[in-house]
Design a protein that fits this description.
The complex is a heterodimer of chains A (368) and B (399). By secondary structure, chain A is an all-alpha fold. Chain A has 14 helices and no strands. In chain B, strand 8 and strand 9 form a beta hairpin. Chain B is globular, with a radius of gyration of 27 Å. Classes of the chains: A mainly alpha (368), B alpha/beta (399).
Chain lengths: 368, 399
């Protein structure tokens, strides 16, 4: 199969923003309302979301400033320029490991949730393999075609999600949001910590900014790319609390799925609205997962130029598969998610900042 | 064969492995759609065997018979076949009941379209509480949180056995009553099993519709069962006038009639719109005082009196008379709930929690339990009625 060649291999600022928001908007939307409801009281976690969103915005801005300094260069190229080849290799390898872990987590989540709600008797192993085969195909295509897939999917995702929210207003009870401001500041911070993982993904601007037609606009793109998911998460969270109230949301495993299940439209067909919701949700997780496989693929190949693309895919996918099936119980999957969220936050929080500081101190600029 | 053809064959073979792997296919005509569940106490035979002695529930499942549903629609009136049948099984837990159902029916039971869950008042009063019965219905992934929960006076199974002339399935008949709240204020608002879950989690006392069977063709939604939010047991029952007053106090009136006396003649006032607000007027935890303000808009619906109903003075007297009637009924009901039942069916605690959080924290632990501060609460009711219209005619006859 021959990948389709685009005449125009560059993307616009808007497309970059769409790409980033569709990466950020992933599995988190199902679990985040529950984790926030567990950490905080009443509907106060909206503050946590806003704080986490602000932090994500700041980090995204820093990461994109870094790419602006080195237009047209790949991550490995400019990191090598800033902190020498060996250290750059270590940092790139860390990102590769993180993205492999991240894809494994996404795969396991999608397999588990699909089994729970859609395929009661199909083994998780088979669902995961079916998902990964498609990921392998899409990730080994050109990067630009992947980016365009996001542009294709996101409007559908947004439309269905907004429809879920509008259709649930019937069950929404504003009384459930009260009382306001009763959570201790520490618990709010704890809630922010829980939601930060849901906002990770924007750091891929580090790897994809090289495809932008106007690299100088990367900060704008990443700001929009973070703000869209923050607004969506805020809406979903408030709607979940308004419908189920805090205690209900804390005790429902996937509150957002239940929200979609609650929708009853006149006419029998839409009684099972959650099937449509699952479709769009799988679309966005597919995007996130294939982008992260693709990034780790390109990181590997920038370090080892002789590595063949298909050979790398054949190496990465089985690894993802094995890691994704290692956790045995729901608790172990959560633990995997936790440790990934910590290492991801550390990577994304430290690497771009320190690279930017060093580049500034050494007066390095890619276009000179 | 060249290598291209080999590759193609390999790809096709590989994809056929994946595409054929449909573990979960169950054709729609192979499913048993369960639309109603009735939970009763188990029957004990004279000398129960060991397994029967442990039985906790006797549950009736209402299953749709799709073919006669279709026939019933085309032939008018001549439907001799019922659109449902009921299966009753007895077991020690809900999930083993569900498994037992598979032993008795030819098709796979499928609960996603469950509409109504009926609990007999005896089961609702049992010390185990509703949580033990409902855990399965909330935990199972097929289930929706939207199934309605009602309590039956007497045997729950009887409600599923009703033969309603214009509704093919009794579980659906029992599910749609909520829309009648526009024409009657005596109906308790629908409660979904999801609402029950949320109330149990919050320890909030709540009210379920209590339904009784009338003859073989009707049910009446005329009572209310009060469920204690902590023990999850039914602790009291309200009769229809009390339900109406409770609806006024809980802001759950959408329409209906208030009967009152005007100049000694029995009259009726039709509610177009009603709303209520709550205030705390004394914040001392030992002498908490609430003021409930109800405002009612409506139309004169029926009267034996022969006054001029366009005269503002007459209108005002009618309004006062309606207000007095609602006020005294509400006060009597509040007295019953606060002093006798001593559980927070009115939702005063929930109001405090949401609007006066600091005060609520002080009283929370002694609200319904411990010192039972709720039973010492004084409640003032203020009703304001506006009569907007007096109907099509002036007087029925001249004096």
């Amino acid at each position: 199969m021959k990948p389709f060649d685009y005449a125009d291999a560059k993307i616009r600022t808007r497309e970059m923003a769409i790409t980033l928001s569709s990466i950020v908007f992933g599995v988190g939307v199902l679990t985040m309302p529950r984790m926030l409801a567990e950490a905080t009281k009443s509907s106060d976690a909206w503050i946590s979301i806003v704080i986490a969103g602000a932090v994500a915005l700041l980090l995204a801005w820093i990461a994109s400033r870094l790419t602006v300094r080195f237009p047209g260069k790949t991550f490995y190229e400019y990191t090598s320029a800033v902190i020498s080849k060996p250290i750059a290799s270590a940092v790139t390898a860390a990102f590769v490991a993180y993205y492999i872990g991240f894809t494994s987590y996404e795969t396991r989540m999608i397999a588990n949730i699909s089994k729970q709600y859609l395929f009661e008797r199909t083994p998780v192993e088979v669902i995961a393999i079916a998902f990964l085969v498609v990921i392998a195909y899409s990730a080994s295509g050109t990067q630009i075609s992947l980016l365009r897939l996001n542009v294709l999917f996101l409007p559908i995702v947004l439309a269905i999600l907004l429809f879920v929210l509008v259709a649930s207003t019937d069950l929404f009870d504003a009384e459930n949001l009260k009382p306001l401001f009763i959570t201790k500041p520490l618990d709010i911070a704890n809630g922010s910590k829980e939601s930060v993982f849901s906002f990770l993904g924007f750091e891929m601007v580090l790897f994809y900014a090289v495809h932008m037609r106007q690299p100088a606009k990367a900060p704008v793109a990443s700001a929009i790319g973070v703000l869209i998911p923050v607004a969506l998460y805020l809406l979903v969270y408030l709607m979940v609390i308004g419908v189920f109230n805090n205690e209900g949301a804390a005790n429902i495993q996937y509150p957002t799925v239940e929200l979609a299940k609650e929708i009853e439209l006149p006419g029998e067909f839409f009684e099972r609205f959650e099937s449509l919701f699952f479709t769009i949700w799988i679309m966005t997780v597919f995007n996130t997962a294939s982008m992260s496989v693709n990034v780790s693929l390109h990181c590997l190949r920038s370090m080892f130029p002789s590595l063949k693309k298909h050979a790398a895919v054949i190496g990465i996918i089985p690894l993802v598969y094995i890691v994704s099936l290692t956790p045995q119980t729901v608790g172990e999957i959560q633990a995997l998610g936790q440790s990934l969220s910590y290492s991801g936050t550390a990577l994304v929080g430290l690497v771009p900042v320190s690279l930017l500081v060093i580049a500034k101190a050494r007066g390095l600029k890619g276009n000179e | 064969m060249n290598s291209r053809a080999l590759k193609l064959a390999g790809a096709l073979l590989g994809s056929s492995l994946l595409l054929g792997g449909c573990w979960d296919r169950v054709e729609i005509d192979q499913r048993n759609f369960v639309i109603g569940v009735a939970i009763d106490e188990p029957l004990r035979p004279e000398q129960p065997s060991d397994s029967q002695a442990k039985d906790k529930y006797r549950v009736t499942f209402q299953i749709v018979v799709p073919s006669s549903l279709k026939a019933g629609q085309t032939q008018s009136g001549g439907g001799s076949k019922k659109a449902y049948y009921n299966v009753t099984v007895q077991e020690k837990s809900m999930s083993s009941l569900y498994a037992k159902l598979a032993l008795r029916t030819s098709r796979v039971p499928f609960m996603e379209h469950l509409k109504t869950i009926i609990v007999s008042s005896k089961m609702a009063q049992s010390p185990e509480g509703l949580n033990a019965m409902f855990d399965f219905f909330l935990r199972e992934y097929d289930m929706r949180r939207s199934a309605h929960v009602i309590v039956s006076k007497g045997e729950a199974r009887k409600l599923l056995e009703l033969n309603i002339p214009n509704e093919p399935m009794s579980a659906i008949y029992l599910n749609v009553f909520d829309r009648n709240r526009r024409s009657s204020s005596f109906i308790v608002p629908q409660v979904r099993i999801g609402d029950v879950h949320e109330n149990l989690l919050r320890f909030e006392t709540f009210v379920l519709p209590e339904v009784s069977v009338i003859g073989k063709e009707e049910a009446a939604f005329n009572n209310a069962a009060i469920i204690d939010g902590r023990t999850n047991r039914m602790v009291g029952s309200l009769s229809n006038l009390e339900v109406q007053s409770l609806n006024f106090m809980r802001d759950a009136v959408k329409g209906g009639i208030v009967g009152f006396k005007f100049e000694g003649k029995s009259s009726a006032f039709q509610i177009d719109k009603a709303s209520r607000t709550i205030e705390v007027t004394n914040r001392d935890p030992d002498r908490l005082t609430f003021k409930i303000k109800v405002s009612v808009d409506g139309t004169l619906n029926e009267t034996g009196a022969l006054d001029d109903f366009t005269d503002p003075a007459v209108i005002e007297r009618i309004e006062q008379s309606v207000s007095r009637t609602i006020k005294s009924r509400c006060e009597n009901t509040a007295e019953l709930i606060l002093r006798k039942i001593k559980k927070d069916a009115i939702g005063l605690g929930a109001y405090l929690n949401r609007n006066h959080y600091r005060l609520w924290q002080k009283v929370e632990n002694n609200w319904e339990t411990g010192e039972n501060l709720l039973s010492r609460v004084s409640l003032q009711v203020e009703v304001k009625t506006r009569m907007r219209r007096s109907g099509n005619i002036g007087k029925i006859r001249r004096e």
